[in-house]
Amino acid sequence: MPGNEPQYEVTEIKAIRGTESKAIANKQQEGWELLSQQQGRVRTTLHFRRPKPPIRWKMWAALGGAGIILASIITVGALLEEESDSSAADNSAAASTEQPSPAPDSGDESAPASATDPMICETRPGGDPCKFGQTAIYSDAVRGGEVKLEITVGEPVEFAASEGALVAYDLPLQPVSVYFPITIKNLSSISPDMIQSQVINAQQGEYDGVQELSDGDVESYAASGANGLSAGQTLSVKDGWNMATLVGVEYRLSIDGLAGYDIEFMR
Questions:
Q1: Angstrom distance (rounded) from CA 198 to CA 180
Q2: What are the φ/ψ torsions at residue 26 (nearest 5 degrees)?
Q3: What is the pLDDT of residue 108?
């Protein structure tokens, strides 16, 4: 019957060329099945799927019945409490006298602060980009619960690359070397499955010459160190990049592949 056909969830990861076998083996241990792979200049995109867990109808039915019983108990309690409150209010009104109205506010007190913090950026799939320096609150439901991360990406910091600086494929250095100060804190009990970064600018776009850079304490693929970050732990790194210009620069974090969503930071 069509209703008995297995349902699948899908995801994708990007592995550095030459590390595809290790990435595939790790995902297969988690129950994922490799569907396809697409090779790029630096990374290979791997597509996986795995069956969704069956819906436990009996459990939900039992919970629904318990909910009905609980709602009935609450309703009866509320009616009894309302009668008691009404009697108490009548007695209080009979024993009290009318009090004068409070004096109007002089206006000296400051207005309450806005509940919205301009340094906090709420995120959602397809949402607006965050600004450099803001802290993005990433939240997404997964099979094991909820992945919730606090991610801060600072303005790109230019520096003079040393002779020992490395870029992918030993390409020559371009005029601009920068790092992005990244802080990622895991606010949930679920570890993020995959975090990968990408930088673009107005001249080179997404895949036309912007390269990852390693130089001293500046690391390439630094944000990927948050993969598997335990609950309550924080990662602070300098994510290095080399490019032709900072005009129109944007920083993107892809979290949990197709199962999650991207966060973009810009000026």
A1: 11
A2: -65, -45
A3: 45
Q: Are 150 and 137 in contact (CB under 8 A)?
A: yes
3-class secondary structure, 95: helix
Task: Please check the confidence at residue 254 and state whether its pLDDT lies above 70.
Answer: yes
Picking from 100-109, 155-164, 239-248, which range would have the lowest pLDDT averaged per residue?
100-109
Q: Which residue has the tokens 């912007």?
A: 210
CATH topology of domain 120-266: Immunoglobulin-like (2.60.40)
Instruction: Give residue 129's pLDDT.
Output: 94
Per-residue CA distances from 255 to 44, 140, 252 (Å): 16, 10, 10
Residue type, 171: L
- Between the alpha carbon of residue 18 and those of residues 49, 129, 143, the distances in Å are 22, 32, 29
Confidence of residue 233 (pLDDT cuts 50, 70, 90): very high
Nearest partner of 176 among 207, 206, 203, 216, judged by Cα: 203
